[in-house]
């Protein structure tokens, strides 16, 4: 059995400045930016041994509310993060919802680029 199945997440964006500001605002964090070839990246902060992810802007990446849903850790309180979504340029599409002891609380929003993103807090 593998230790990990999912190791990396890339969230496509069409406007890096807008998207980076959106995620920094709702998650109350700072992201580091980088360019490589024709792509632009902003890295979500992670501790060593954690899975990571980025925002990516480039010709092969198109934001969409359809397809795979990425869930971000909503700890310690989804309400705080969800309350920042609208003023940061996104739209809450599912308020905080309890799914039971096995899954905890979830919420969902469209980010500033139109991607459907979930939040979960166990």
UniProtKB/TrEMBL annotation:
<dbReference type="InterPro" id="IPR037523">
    <property type="entry name" value="VOC_core"/>
</dbReference>
<dbReference type="InterPro" id="IPR004360">
    <property type="entry name" value="Glyas_Fos-R_dOase_dom"/>
</dbReference>
<dbReference type="InterPro" id="IPR029068">
    <property type="entry name" value="Glyas_Bleomycin-R_OHBP_Dase"/>
</dbReference>
<dbReference type="InterPro" id="IPR052164">
    <property type="entry name" value="Anthracycline_SecMetBiosynth"/>
</dbReference>
<protein>
    <submittedName>
        <fullName>Glyoxalase</fullName>
    </submittedName>
</protein>
<feature type="domain" description="VOC">
    <location>
        <begin position="5"/>
        <end position="122"/>
    </location>
</feature>
<dbReference type="Pfam" id="PF00903">
    <property type="entry name" value="Glyoxalase"/>
</dbReference>
